[in-house]
Amino acid sequence: LYVLLWFIKAVQKSRLNLQEIIENISEEPSLHLVFKNKNLIDTFKEEYDKTSDLSVFLKNRKQVKDLEDYEKGHWWVQDLSSMLPLHLSPEIKFKKVLDMCAAPGGKAFQTICLDNEVTLNDISLKRTSTLKTNLKRLNFNNKVENYNALEIPEDEKFDVIILDSPCSGVGTLRRNPEILFKKKPPNLNFLTKVQKDLINKAAKLLNNKGIIIYMVCSFFYDETKNIKNNFLNENKNFSQYKFDISSNNKFKKFLDNDGDIFCIPSKYNNYMVDGFYSVKFIKNV
Questions:
Q1: CA torsion, ordered 102, 283, 92, 67, to nearest 10 deg
Q2: Which of 52, 67, 147, 280 has the fewest Cβ atoms surrounding its Cβ within 10 A?
Q3: Which residues partner with 272 through β-bridges?
Q4: Apex CA 88: angle with CA 59 and CA 50, to 5°?
Q5: Are strands 266-268 and 271-273 parallel, antiparallel or unpaired?
Q6: Is the CB of residue 280 less than 8 Å from the CB of residue 243?
Q7: Percent of the chain with pLDDT strictly greater than 70
Q8: Distance CA 267, CA 283 (A)
Q9: What is the pLDDT of residue 1?
């Protein structure tokens, strides 16, 4: 129990239901795929349940590499909750985009498929190697940078910046239960400082009327609402830009009263969904 005290305290601070989270993470994860375009789902031979025009949950459990069309690069694995920020941002098309922490690539691949000019960056050489392997399988040839994101040159500006920030990862507890039992808990003070520094850096790389999409696979208050509130308080030339559910009303359950994407590890139509958070900002002139 002592090992879990940090987690219990963080959940309580976030005003979430601890028992509900514990019950949900005991279930086996589901496999969710996102496709490059709508037509590729129609030719997909596996049994599935559609979640959108571009995504499905698989009905049967298989190794990823054994699935239909893996080698052809028609799709990639991406949890439903982490797909939503870009899926609910139809305005992000034909833009100049920077993905600051891109590996292993799911959100970047979504962005590329929307006919954007996308620059990918990741600080980790190992993760960058994985990203490049994934890009090759999907037949994408986007440039990959290897900067510490805080040191990206500020002479080039972007219309959209995607920031899937380093975080505690507690949203993925169902897949990574070892997070709870490591000798040392996640260093939330360090992580939240990184998150704050990264989002402020993103603000400096943005064109007027540009958009930042901030996301973390976490449901802790310190990594989610607190980052958002601090950013808006300290950057008066930014305001929140709501996600568009006009054509995807079934995803309304993933939006909270503030209009943020917010979910704990949970179920969606009997499939398992990871915990996730995202908020979108627009830079006002």
A1: 30
A2: 147
A3: 267
A4: 20
A5: antiparallel
A6: yes
A7: 99
A8: 34
A9: 55
Q: How confident is the model at residue 3 (pLDDT cuts 50, 70, 90)?
A: low
3-state secondary structure 206-242: EEEEEEEEEEECCCCHHHCHHHHHHHHHHCCCEEECC
Tens of pLDDT, residues 188-221: 999 999 999 999 999 999 999 999 999 999 999 9
Write down how long the chain is: 285
Predicted structure pTM score: 0.96
Tokens 């802790």: give the residue: 220
99: left (phi over 0), alpha (psi -120 to 50) or beta: beta
Structure tokens at 223: 């990594």
